């Protein structure tokens, strides 16, 4: 399956999912995906890390403890598969569950569909599951922006909006003319040179203004070694919020967000 790629936070595993699906908020440690326009089922995945061989042990344990589970093969992966029916608001659903594992990682995948719904999409996702080995250097990758980075983007922007309101008693709408307000806050010296998160929030906010003003800017998640961060992709360029402010401050340089913004605009 081509589709979109998901690399889990902490880069334990990767998988591909259909290009018309998105990631949605779920419980902690569980990742939820479905098609928001034409709902065909909810796909959930959780991963658990253990000692060597933990993945195979999880399959064996499920088969011994769950009488309704049977051993099936999905692609090259052995899975303990079971299903159960339930009713919600008068509609019947089937929840299909696969417990599988690779090396020291066990996966629990479920696909909840209307009764009689196909499990093909879920099996196609499971077939693409790969684990990422610790200590191995993987090439940097840009993947569709994950929820964890969307939260980071929103948090950074909200911090800037409230800081501008507090310091300047002015509203901040995320448009080009707000850059002057942002620069005033920077010039006031309020943000200490060691405050990485706050400088990152400023870089993120400049990028939000770019997405509001320039068509075709798209948020992505960058996975590069231990770094997992939101970046903007525009055509064949990557704009990194970290480099717009924090990298400059860290190097002892001054940060001028208006100039940074203009240089991106001119170069596009």
Automatic annotation (TrEMBL):
Question: Which ranges carry the DUF3805 domain?
Answer: 4-154
Do you know which InterPro entries this protein is assigned to? Answer: DUF3805 (IPR024315), DUF3806 (IPR024266)
Q: Know the name of this protein?
A: DUF3805 domain-containing protein
Q: Which domain of life is it from?
A: Bacteria
Q: Which Pfam families match?
A: DUF3805, DUF3806
Ranges for the DUF3806 domain?
178-261
